[in-house]
């Protein structure tokens, strides 16, 4: 395996590439073509992304620095931490400017105001003072810092006031936590809001009677929130995860956000007590914690939001009037590809599991659950199936970051009713999105399969763009049976006929497929397309470089991290990298190899040298290829291949809005400057996809109506 640090000039630093991605998210907040409240949403997403980045990635770099690690691309951990500090300072400044110079004035023009205490008149002051005394003051707890009062624990991502107090000639420090269970924005009127911390700061003197308040300064701490559980060492993985979750809130501090203008002595005190360095400070001009802007986004102002798109039901899954749709019958007829959230998750995936739970002919349901929703219809259906006596086996990934608590709750609920719950293969996360239903039919047992790119999560299925394949292909069913036996037992099967599985050779197979596109006596220059969330793995990148140098056309559609350098003469001349962002989070993984289908060995497909399309759960990262169970499945049916080809074609069109990578710099394509109208000849890929799905449904319904009329006449 190639080590990243052996050839750092050939790769973009991973952390820098992630920060580039988050900058692209932030740029959407400045686009005038996007409805106002949706722009506010992108600020909230940008802020939340940064929180998680510090909780995990920066925390990891700090651990590496403490351990003396120095062999990393882009320099050692200390160099990377300095790079991050500089970049975050810039992006935070840009974030504040977009909010306070663009969006707050635009909100005001639309009748929505986020106001400061000093902007309010005397009557409103009186009204808000009463609101403070009645609903806020009783829940506040002032915590002094002096020899008798140690520095208090500052919980992760909580909003706090640093209060400087003078008593005689003595100056003291106190901390007041802004109550997290209260709304961040206190309504003055239905469309006018005062930040909670400003209301508390204006009345903080009531917490310290007879003392002089010198000043109040808002601050926020981010802590290490990554889990450090090794399932090799844990006798009871579930109990170990529960223990670690309790410890997570006490992780070491990794970032201090503080309002601009905070006195140096206050900042120094916080740094000392939190054991942070000056590079760990982010000064914020204006509001801290913009994730709270989701509350403003939720206001009932539809004219300031994206036009709602209602998910549609695939024609194959639509039931005749007055009848229940028969998903098993539809899947028996042909493979079915669903594209969420354009295609309804409820009428496809949820309905598939629900029908399996209620169908007397179904004997067994097996599936993986990586991220669940708190009120999961799928989890409830699995419980119901077990209660009806069906054999239900569920692989729940307890270490799905930030979803551990929900997964633990469902695991316990399922075990109580007799579901066979497993936590996966020791040392690996199970990231595959697969479901297997075994049904007794007239000619014996038949296996129905779903393999997807996204989680079995009803909530994110409305926000994440994902693909899923339903099939009754016996070869896929046999492969999934082997896979589940591996996940729940001691099996180590590597002989899969259709699917490709990580860590059992996925990297090797992908590299073979890339190499297979090199020109040879059987075919001319090939083509490789990959649509991914992230491209990091050095071996895969080197294979793509080699393909480019051999004349292979390579198109990469990468939402997030891309460590490959594009369009570099002599290295990657033939590699084009595109990034598309929009109202939905692009999450599907799609692979295309122009000559990838072969009939030898265990390679998927039937025809030598024919186009191969794969979808599945795996990004091209070391963690996916080495540390997770992942699956890719070939899409072989011609009409579904055409659909994938059209999807990729839309994303790569030159008149599609997005970004392109030039060496290591992302260049915006067709972005609309602030204040300018959107060009009419530039398309939004997600809008185009929704229009296509809606058109397909209308044509299907018209054809059905014609058929019904024809049958009635005959």
Note down, in words, how this protein is organized:
The chain is an alpha/beta fold and 714 residues long. Helix 1 packs antiparallel against helix 2, helix 2 (36-67) packs antiparallel against helix 3 and helix 14 (506-515) packs parallel to helix 15 (538-549). The protein is globular. The model is unreliable at 1-6 and 599-607 (pLDDT under 50). Strand 3 and strand 4 form a beta hairpin. The chain is 36% helix and 22% strand. The strands form four sheets. Strands 14, 18, 19, 20, 21, 23, 24, 25, 26 and 27 form a ten-stranded mixed β-sheet that branches. Strands 10, 11, 12, 13, 15, 16, 17 and 22 form an eight-stranded mixed β-sheet that branches. Strands 2-4-3-7-8-9 form a six-stranded mixed β-sheet. The chain has 18 helices and 27 strands.
